[in-house]
Amino acid sequence: MAHVLENFDKWKEFLGNRVEAAQSAGMNTDKIADVAYQIGGFLSDKVDPKNSQERLLKQMWEVSSPEDRHALARTMVNLVSRDH
Q1: What are the φ/ψ torsions at residue 69 (nearest 5 degrees)?
Q2: Residue 37 · residue 73 · CB < 8 Å
Q3: CA torsion sign, 47 to 36 to 72 to 7?
Q4: What is the DSSP secondary structure assignment for residue 6, as one 8-state letter?
Q5: pTM of this prediction?
Q6: Nearest-10 crossing angle of helices 66-82, 8-24
Q7: pLDDT in the model for residue 2
Q8: Which of 3, 27, 43, 77 has its CA 20 to 30 A from that of 37?
Q9: Which contacts of 62-66 are long-range, i.e. CB under 8 A and separated by 24 or more positions?
Q10: Domains with residue ranges and CATH for the chain
């Protein structure tokens, strides 16, 4: 996972593949966004940003309310889903 986090495009590809797999397994978009929210919290708390995009996401996450964090998570899911 650390290698994936070093490059934002690799991270988007990794996340996009996981979203696609979850959709193929029958998981709905709301559940996927909920999992993305949980992952976002974990990454913000436990992983140092490896690039400027991740630093920006971490800063946005840290200043956001829980409702806004859910919106950020849904936005990331939408972003990577668009690319697949």
Answers
A1: -65, -40
A2: yes
A3: positive
A4: T
A5: 0.79
A6: 90
A7: 52
A8: 3
A9: none
A10: 2-82 (1.10.760)
d(C-alpha 56, C-alpha 59), whole Å: 5
Q: How many residues does the chain have?
A: 84
Distance CA 59, CA 69 (A): 11
CA distance 57 to 55: 5
Token couple for 8: 């934002």
For range 53-58, the mean pLDDT? 89
pLDDT at 73: 92
DSSP symbol at 22:
H
Nearby residues of 38 by Cβ (< 8 Å), 6 or more positions away: none
**In the prediction, which pLDDT does 64 show?**
96
Q: In degrees rounded to 5, what are phi and psi of residue 46?
A: -115, -15
